[in-house]
Write a sequence for this structure.
């Protein structure tokens, strides 16, 4: 069955770089797009960026200067790296599969706290 | 970017009520809207795609409609398990954008 699972550090210091991994199973990264979406505590959802099935990427313009998404298809993993973290980057980060442009399956999310 | 204005931000309902949430897009989104349910501490769950198509497993008390810029999502006969937050998502254009969310509570 389709599964996505995020992993990464729960705590990141301000100005440091966040590195998250989304490990997928039940589908191929060369057939489906995978996105990253985040949610500050008690707030709404924000689309961050996309890794397409062909390796192309797209980013939210508000984050583009700090954000990089890559993948390792042999390991079924999609990576997110975001630098210069600030306290307002605190939140839950999700990876989600794109089926015909809408998001059908989501990971459980990983909570990231930016604090010294 | 397409802005999605979702209302109301919160909603109080009794069991068995019908509730409606709306999302207005800043431009025509050609019915490319999905609706998600999110319970505390959980990932969003897809309920409806392409305005009105129920995802497999979505109870029939959920429905969606709309066209152009204006869309709505309804729950008829609210049940206790429906207490959650709900979000719309437009997926017609990059960047994908969500509505601000609606928190459904029991009266």
């Amino acid at each position: 069955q389709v599964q996505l699972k995020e992993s990464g550090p729960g705590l990141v210091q301000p100005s440091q770089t966040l590195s998250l991994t989304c490990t997928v199973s039940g589908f191929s990264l060369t057939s489906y797009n995978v996105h990253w979406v985040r949610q500050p505590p008690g707030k709404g959802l924000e689309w961050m960026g996309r890794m397409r099935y062909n390796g192309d990427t797209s980013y939210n313009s508000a984050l583009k200067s700090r954000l990089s998404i890559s993948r390792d298809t042999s390991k079924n993993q999609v990576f997110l790296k975001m630098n210069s973290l600030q306290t307002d980057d605190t939140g839950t980060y999700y990876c989600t599969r794109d089926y015909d442009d809408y998001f059908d399956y989501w990971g459980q999310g990983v909570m990231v706290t930016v604090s010294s | 970017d397409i802005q999605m204005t979702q209302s109301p931000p919160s909603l109080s309902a009794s069991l068995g009520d019908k509730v409606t949430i709306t999302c207005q897009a800043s431009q025509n989104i050609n019915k490319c809207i999905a609706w998600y349910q999110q319970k505390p501490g959980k990932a969003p769950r897809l309920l409806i795609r392409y305005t009105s198509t129920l995802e497999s497993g979505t109870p029939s008390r959920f429905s969606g409609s709309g066209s152009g810029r204006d869309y709505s999502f309804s729950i008829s006969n609210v049940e206790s398990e429906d207490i959650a937050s709900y979000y719309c998502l437009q997926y017609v254009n990059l960047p994908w954008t969500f509505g601000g969310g609606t928190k459904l509570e029991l009266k």
Summary: The two ends of chain B are 36 Å apart (CA to CA). The interface with chain A takes residues 1, 32, 34, 36, 42-46, 49-50, 55, 87, 89, 91-92, 94-101 of chain B (CB under 8 Å). Chain B has a mean pLDDT of 97.
